[in-house]
Each structure stands twice: as C-alpha cells, then as structure tokens.
Amino acid sequence: MTSPRIYTAALAVIGDEILSGRTQDKNIAQIALWLNLQGIRLREVRVVPDVEDEIVGAVNALRARYDYLFTTGGIGPTHDDITVDAIAKALGVDVVIHPEASALLNRYYESRGGLNEARLRMARVPDGADLIPNRMSGAPGIRHGNIFIMAGVPHITAGMLDALSGTLEGGLPLLSTTVGCWVPESEISELLASTEKAHEGTQIGSYPFFREGKVGANFVIRSTEQELLDRCALALSDGLRAMGREAVAGGI
Amino acid sequence: MTSPRIYTAALAVIGDEILSGRTQDKNIAQIALWLNLQGIRLREVRVVPDVEDEIVGAVNALRARYDYLFTTGGIGPTHDDITVDAIAKALGVDVVIHPEASALLNRYYESRGGLNEARLRMARVPDGADLIPNRMSGAPGIRHGNIFIMAGVPHITAGMLDALSGTLEGGLPLLSTTVGCWVPESEISELLASTEKAHEGTQIGSYPFFREGKVGANFVIRSTEQELLDRCALALSDGLRAMGREAVAGGI
Q1: DSSP string spanning A141-208?
Q2: Are B90 and B123 spatial neighbours (Cβ–Cβ below 8 Å)?
Q3: ipTM of this predicted structure
Q4: Which domain holds residue B242?
Q5: Residue B215, domain member (yes or no)
Q6: How far is the alpha carbon of B145 from chain A, nearest alpha carbon, in Å?
Q7: Mutate to test the interface with A, among B8, B20, B62 (most CBs of A within 10 A)
Q8: Rounded to two decimals, what is the model's pTM?
Q9: What is the CATH number of the domain that holds B186?
C-alpha cells in the first residue's frame, strides 16, 4: 500500500497590528481548522510586517514549498494596504484592475457614496488572478495560482473560506480523538511514547493544564485512519487504567 | 542627528496544536506587547510543527537576522517536547543536564512524587545555556546567547517574561496613539497617506470595524517621539474635522 498524498498549506499573516500586539490574531486557528476539513494540513505560518520586501520574501518562500499559500491582511483601501502590490512583485506580474471586481465595488458603493480612488484600489489584483466571493462587504478576495489572498478581519475571511469550501484538492483529513486524565503528564510520558510507537501512523500530543487546583492533561491522538485512532485511544486508556488512573474519553 | 538604534526580535511558536487549530495562540500578542515595553520590536513570527528539521531551520534563520529570538512551546516532559534538542542541533552544541535546573526540579517534585526520568528531561539545556526563572511551575526557561526558550502555556510564559523584564538591551519604545472616527476608511485614505507623509517618523495604521450597524475605523499612529506623535494626531483630527467628521481621541 502506498501512502496517500498529503496536501500542505502555509499561511502568511500580513500586518503590523499583529506584530505590535495590538490585535490578537484569530485567522491562524480559523484557517487551520478549515484547511483540515478540506484534507489539507497547515504546516507553517509566518507573520510579517506591512513592508513590501518582507511580504515578497515570505510569499516566495512559502508558495514554492507548500501546495497552497493563504495570506491574510493588507487588502483594504488605505495606504498601508500593500499586499496586492507585494504579491504581484513576488510573482513578477503587473497589478491590474479586475473588471468584475470593479463592477462589484461599483454596485456595492452605489448607495454608499460612490466608488472613489481609494475604493477602486480594492479592485486591483496581480495580473491573471481570479476573485474569491466576499458576501460580507464589497471587496473580494483574490486567487492567483496556488495563492489565496484573504481579508484581515476574521469574519470577512470566514465568508471567503465558506466560498472556497470544497473547491481545493485535498487528501484524507487528519482525524483526531482526545483522551483526558487527571495526571501530571510527567508521570506517564513513557506510556505516551510507547503507545505512539506501537501505533504507526498516529501522533500523540500532550497538552497539560492546571484547573480546579489540580493538574491534568489532554492527549490528542491524530491519524488519517479512524480505526487506527480508535485502537490507539483504547490502548492509551487501558495503559492509564493499568497505572491506576482514570481515562476520560473525549478529554477533560 | 543619527537615528537611534532599533532593536528587533523574532518569535518561533513551536507546536502542532497551533497549526492544527486546536489551540488559539496567545503568546504572539503577549510577547509582542512585552517586547515593546523593553524597547524591542517584534519583526517576524514563524509557527512551525513539532518536527526537528523545521525547528532547526526557523531558529537558524531567525537568530541570525534579529537581535533576539524567542521560542514558545515544546519544553515539557513528554516525547513530543523536542525544542531543546532541536535548538542544540541548530547551535551545534550538545544537550546537557543543567545542575541548577535539576536541583530546582528535585525540590519542586519532592512533594509531588519525586523526580523521574521524564521530569529530569526538563533540566536538559543546550550546552552553555542559562536558566530563566519560572515562578509558576518547576521547569525553568532557557537562555542561550540571543535565544530565549519559553513555555507554551501562556501564563507560565508570562511569569518568565516578568523575570526577564528590564534585563534585555533595547532602544526607544515605540509609542502609539489612536484616533477613532465613524467613517469608512475608504473615504479618508488620502488624508491618512498625506498626514503620514507630512510627519516623517510616524506610521499610521488603519483598522476598520463594523459596530452598532455603522462602519468606523481606528487610526493607530506609531512613533518613538511623543511630541511628533501628538502633532500627527492633532493634524489627523483637524483633517477629519475639515471633512465634517468627528475625531475621537483615544479611539472608538
């Protein structure tokens, strides 16, 4: 049996507001969860400032290395929105006005003061791009080859992801199951390692917590095969019980 | 007048739990805010999986390029905690048991079942490292040259940052002030660009929002000089008023 192909993605988060700590990023988790449903694994994230060379560098490194590259941020109408220009530069193509985007924006702003120069900026795309529908506001997202250019505002990005659902080629989704236990992870690290080793094709992550005055941990088992996942979870639960600990299916 | 030196940092977030979307990262914003208070600017973040070669690659790229490199995650007692080994590999040094760390852990676990092999893993450091105090739990953080190896759990990282406060050489902190306005950012993008241009040494970020059924934006002005910041904020507020818009000092 050959291994099924694994599809990979990277995310470039573009924005001084994340690097200054002003804004708590929510797109990493949102895009990671969505990608997993598409059978695509998020393998790397880079957060870069609103500086053209930094964006170009990250985009070129990531688009070459992964099947898909998503970007968030920097596609609005103001002077600090330079993502489209930077990605066009990375691709070596011109920035052009996309006629469909300009028509969309025209309709959207008809009742909102009309299309001005700043608003028309949001119809600019790297030459050769397609649009990604945005049902939340006027400005669309942009697809160019394996690059998906999304908004920075999380609920707008969510709408763009919805529009893309089921359209990207992916592989088997990574399934996961969680076993929780009120135990310090440092007491059962051997059990975790041996259980993972005995179930090739699984990974077990250990996530400790401190709650209600007690320490515990959730053990997240990941695999593309449900049956393997179940067997591994059972073995881990049995192992915990053999050490006198109660295993909580689904996590704590 | 020569420009004052700008001190820079990068952050490598190490952990499959962030890339899978299971855990919402909180360390980026926390470390960004703390760094700014130290007069250090966070310039880049990379999120990488629990895979040795990926950690080595990110660490070597980032430690060379920025004054400081912080890492979070992967320093616990279980098999998936490989940060210390990966960083030692990146540095080309051995992993050794730090005697002070092993003494700390010994004391901490005296009343908690004793030090076992897994717990002793948390005393392992890249050869030549110093410890970063951790008042929250037994395992210390680690400093090696310009690399600061921190916990993944945010409140433990917070304690380590506290312990480091005031010990890193920094420059002038980046100050900021916010002007808010109930205006679509696309109506005043020219004003933003011209105001920034007229105040060299400032950057203006535009952060739109949709609230109470209305659109608005906060304009965050950043500079290392308070007087310049104040002048720029005043000019922007005057400009907004000249367009018939009310400027809200401090943001909306």
Answers
A1: EEEETTEEEE-SSHHHHHHHHHHHTT-S---PPPEEEEEEESS-GGGSHHHHHHHHHHSTT-EEEEEE
A2: no
A3: 0.92
A4: 175-249
A5: yes
A6: 23
A7: B20
A8: 0.93
A9: 3.30.70.260
